[in-house]
C-alpha cells in the first residue's frame, strides 16, 4: 500500500457508533490507533445508511462511497437485516425493518436478558424470518465487494455482530461464516471476524438492552479486530 491511505467507512448505523457518539465507534477507535501505531498519513471519511435493509444499499455505493476515491472501504451491514423482529415497520418503498425504539444506550440488565430469551423462543416457536433473507444478504454483500474490487478499492468486510435473541444470533453466526468463506476466494478482499471476537465475551457486556446494538465495550472489541486487519493492509 502507498505511504498514505484514504479509508472510507460505509455501513449501517453502528459503524458510526450509534447509539453512542461517533468518537466511540469501532471505526474511529481503530483509525486513531492505526495512525498512532503505523505513523502513516491516514485520511478517513464515513457514510452511514442507518436502518436501510441491504437490498437498498448497492444503488448508493457509487455516489456515497466510490466517488470519493478511497483506497480502502470498510463495509459493515447486518444488524438491520439479520434480526428476527417480533414487530416490523413498513418503509415507504414497501420493504420492512425491525421496529426499534429511538436512540437509547441503556445497558443490558437481567430484565433485558430475559427479554432476549423470550424473543428467541418466540421466534423459534413462530418460525419467524429475518428482515432480509440470508441468501439475499450474502449475495448483496458479495456484489458490493466485487464492485469495489473492480474499481481497485480494497474492501474490508466486518462480519455481522452478535445478537441477544438466539434466533437472530444464529443468522449472524451463519452469515459470518459464509462471508469468511466467500472472501477467501476473492484476492485483495479482507475479512474482520467481529462475530467470533464478540462471541468470546458475555452478551450482556457486548450488547445494549435492545440486544441488537453494541455497548461501548463491544465497540472496543470490534475496533481491536479491525485495527489488526487495517495494519496489515497499510504496512504491506
Short description:
The protein has 236 residues and is α/β, with parallel strands linked by helices. It is built from nine helices and seven strands; from the N terminus they run βαβαβαββααβαβααα.
Describe it for me?
The protein is of the alpha/beta class and 236 residues long. Helix content is 45%, strand content 14%. Helix 1 crosses helix 9 and helix 5 (134-150) runs parallel beside helix 6. Residues 91-96 have low confidence and may be disordered.
Query: Which value, in Å, is the CA radius of gyration?
Result: 17 Å
**Relative helix content:** 40-55%
Low-confidence stretches: 91-96
Strand content: 5-15%
Structural class: alpha/beta
The succession of helices and strands, N to C, reads EHEHEHEEHHEHEHHH
Number of helices: 9
Instruction: Give the spatial strand order of the biggest sheet.
Output: 2-1-3-6-7
> What is the straight-line distance between the termini?
6 Å
Mean pLDDT: 92
The largest sheet, given as strand count, sense and whether it forms a barrel, is: 5 strands, parallel
- What is the number of strand segments? 7
What does the overall shape look like? globular
